[in-house]
Amino acid sequence: MNYIDIIDKLEENELEMFEKDLKEGYVQKYIERKKEFFKIKNKTCPVCGNNVREDCFVLIWGEPSIRKKAHFCGIDCLNYFIEQFINKRIKTQKIENKKEMLENKGIKNRSKKK
């Protein structure tokens, strides 16, 4: 998708907002920030601590407004990171489910007492 396709999909008010942001320099600032996001400068692998090269593995995740990015020196470190991330997510989900069950149980017990 190129920028013409993106602009073609904008509604009139969105196009006016984009034009205003473009004139005020916000678009250029965002482009510069996005370029910085893709640069690799003195990065280290979060798993083993080795310096990473330009041809490293990169993982980008999160919501568009708060993206996170990590650089890995090898596929083994990337794999380990993903496994740990998934395991943490599963544990967090289990804890949230238990809390929800207990809260629901408490509500049911209170309603039975009445």
Structure in words:
The protein has 114 residues and is mostly helical. The protein has two domains: 1-39, no CATH class; 41-114, no CATH class. It has four helices and two strands. The longest helix is centred in the last third of the chain and has 39 residues, at 75-113. The mean pLDDT is 84.
Key traits:
114 residues, mainly alpha, 2 domains, two-stranded antiparallel sheet, 4 helices, 2 strands, 9% strand
Characterize this entry briefly.
The protein has 114 residues and is mainly alpha-helical. It contains four helices and two strands.
Q: What's the average pLDDT? A: 84
Number of domains: 2
Indicate the structural class: mainly alpha
- What's the arrangement of strands in the largest beta sheet? 1-2
Number of helices: 4
- Overall outline: flat
Count every beta strand, where a strand is a DSSP E run of 2 or more residues. 2
Q: What is the element string, with H for helices and E for strands?
A: HHHEEH
Distance between the termini: 61 Å
Report on the biggest sheet. 2 strands, antiparallel
As a percent range, the share of helical residues equals 55-70%
Uncertain stretches of 5 or more adjacent residues: none
Q: How large, in whole angstroms, is the Cα Rg?
A: 23 Å
Strand percentage: 5-15%
Q: Which helices and strands occur, and which strands form pairs?
A:
Elements: H1 3-8, H2 12-23, H3 26-38, E1 57-61, E2 68-72, H4 75-113
Antiparallel strand pairs: 1-2
